[in-house]
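Example A, followed by Example B.
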Amino acid sequence: MGMKTSAVIADGTFPTNTAPILGPIPEAVRQAAEAGYDAVSVTVCRPGEVDMSALQRACREHHIAVSGLATGRIYTVDGLCLGAGDEENRLAAVQRMLSYAELCARLDGAKLIVGTIRGWTRDAGGREAYVRQFRRSMEAIVARAEALGVEVVLEAISSIDSDAYCTIAETAEYVRSFRSSALRLQLDSIHLHTNGELDFYPKILALKGLVGQVDISDVDRMAPDGAHFDFPLLIQALKEIGYRDYLVFEFRAQPPAGAARAGLDYIRTLL
């Protein structure tokens, strides 16, 4: 079995350049299935924002899975941060993530994504305090994920989105320090580009067994077409480490028209 594909979806009630499929959740699921995706990844912020029962019904109807819950809006909208120096804020962020871990368990293997919700070291007043606070948060989340059988993925994030755990090496070292099968590494093509890690091939070869998700997005959050980023090399590296998990398509809905299908069609030529 090869790599699986998933499209980020959003309900269209907020501006986003990371969801190639927009609209009411049942309709977005239908579009993803018709485009040929194996799964959808859902952007969440607050409990109750997404009708999970409707999501599950739509997924059953269209024979499609939920690959994960993206949680960045918990930080960008509500300001909750897993590394916050303010303990009330940090605990609220952890509680929100624990509630979504429960939903991931209900969604039969959906991953819990730790991306922008990590915040910046300035949220704790400096790196030393941040590292301590973020570790406390991640330990609580990983422990609950282990109990639930849920996988948490920590994204090697762009340096324009955070100053903590950005590079492949730094993030991989952090993930390994937990010694937990419930915590794995998430890669993202646009973050590799933004961070200047275009020498990613040998670095990925050192990640066998550690990668839990790979996001696909071209430069400027466009659909991948091979003209701006070396997707053939990325896919080759993933094949060499035996990666069989989700490629999550995370880019703007247009241009071009039908970006979700166009991006998928291109990446399929490499699989």
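Example B, a separate protein, is given below in the same form.
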Amino acid sequence: MEIKVAKSAGFCFGVKKAVECVYEQIDENEKSGEKKQIYTYGPIIHNENVVNDLAGKGVKVINSEEELKEIISGIVIIRSHGVSKHIYDIIESNKLKLVDATCPFVKKIHKIVYEKSQEGMQIVIIGNDKHPEVEGIKGWSVTAPVVIEDEQEAEMFCTEKSKEICIVSQTTFNYNKFNKLVEIISKKGYNSSIVNTICNATSVRQVEAKEIAKEADAMIVVGGSNSSNTQKLFEICKKECNNTYYIQNAEDLHDVEFDDDWYVGITAGASTPNNIIEEVRTNVRIKHGKL
């Protein structure tokens, strides 16, 4: 059996920075002796293993704006997905210590949306309306933004012909799908400013996964169950390789069988730690006597 792990698999820059930020805060808190409660606004990343490890170290997750308003002391870490502008205002109003671990590429989108909406432009966000990153981006537009996820929504999009629109994207959106939706909107004749804000790491990860899946007899995609970018990787790989499996860790491979002469590809979402990827590869090797 030949096993190939995608070079781009695992933590991206933004996620790595955010996770390291939380562990640094834990260490600093211990050394200071103040023992302030550490919170993350939402799970720091979409990976249950990491979130559970942090919970074991005393880090609590704030799941809503209402919960945040009730907190009057402690450290609040903004996760890599970013948040709406008014969340910063609540943290400041409650005099909480703010640690901003928002991915720099997401922060760039916030700046674009804020500035362009102040100029009166209609903001169009290509992405999943319910994803926390998109929810955060919407919160930086001073005018009502529009979120478009599929071709039907793109076809239905309509605004004043005299109004200039600014199109941005969720950083983890499928690159080809983004281009298709932009094409549909552009045909409507609006004066459009298009900013491709898909993270380069996302594009590289998707292209590499597709190339491996084309050649593979089986493809393993590793990532958290709520990870948007991992779900997109799975969809891309599934189109190229019918034997594609979406797992969270090595334990999920328990009932999966591969032929000994298969070429098995492995990729992973941006929120998947390297140790989990290595455990998956080792598990496949052990099952087939290749270790």
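On Example B: The longest helix spans residues 13-32.
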